[in-house]
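REQUEST ID: PR-0412
SUBMITTED BY: lab tech R.K.
PRIORITY: routine
TASK: structure prediction, single protein chain
INPUT:
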Amino acid sequence: MNWIKQNPFLSALIGITIVLCGILVFVAIKGGSKYEKAKKDYNSAYADVRNFEKLKLYPNKDNSQAKNKALEEYDKAIKDLSDLYKNYQLDPSKKITTQQFTGNVKLASEEVAKAFNATGGKLPENFFMGFESYKGQLAKTGSTSLLDYQLNAIKHILLGMAEAKPSELVRIYREKISEENDIAHIPGKNDVARKFGYEIVFKGSEPAVRDFITKLGNKHNYYCVIRSIRINNQREAPPRISDAKFETPKPPDAATPFGAFFEDPAPAPGTPSGTAPAPGVAPAPGTAPASGVAPAPGTAPTPDIAPAPVVDPQPEGADDASAPPVNPGAPTPAPAPLPAGAQANTDTSRILYQVLGDEELEVFIRFDLLLFLPKPEPAKP
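STATUS: complete
OUTPUT:
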């Protein structure tokens, strides 16, 4: 204490120096922690930038051009798809009055009935294209455009069914739409099409059923989606062997009574006109039978079998100048072609009837007719 009192200036200088050193140490420690934090943040940001640069859509010039090109192609694909589905959309400019709609239903019913009559198919009683409720009343004004679209679609479908040649259209059912009760239809948020439900029951053969289902899936004019289908045989018992039907074979040609069952055997070497008569068949007059073969009494020669040459060196007819000379070394002529209408020996029996039967099928189909909604306008930013 005496030294401090004796040296006040030096003591004050030492004290101030100690305080300043403490302040400097405190500032250095605090600044070091900030530096470490800043360095850590920098390294983290640098790593994020390096990762972003590796992404495909990093905002550089090449990626920007590629993104713009992809957006243009996407917009073009959406436009092409919208143009394609215009065929399955309602024309807003087409207005149908209630009287016009009723007349259209009558004309369509007559056209479908005429097509079914031409193929021998039957229609249900009081047939009116599934619009039987409008036989005695007019449709609501706000529903005629939608109903007319359904009418044209079901007419197209039933004309295709008539082409498939079913035996009978048993029933057709159409689900009513809300506009028929003066209730507006509100589509869902993600709806792209509106569904109109139909049910059809008909009878026909297996080819007719297959043909109609193919036509129903055709998307050229109207877009239909099959929801369920049930096919029943006309009878539950399986076909029996007695149900098999066979085609009646054609009678043989008069010139060849034995048809193709008796073919000419291969000619022996040196035989000019083919072969010797078959055993049990008498040779033609003026010819000798084959060696060791006796002609059967009372049998007539087969027209298709050429007789063997006679032993006499001067056969009958040799004096005739028009008769061709006998040449043992001449080649055998080609067989004559089959007469017109004649066929080879083929079995055309319909054996599969023993397994498949020929009964008709009864088919129930539940399908939806889709009407695609207009493309919504994108929201402006």
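NOTES: The two ends are 81 Å apart (CA to CA).
REVIEWED BY: pending
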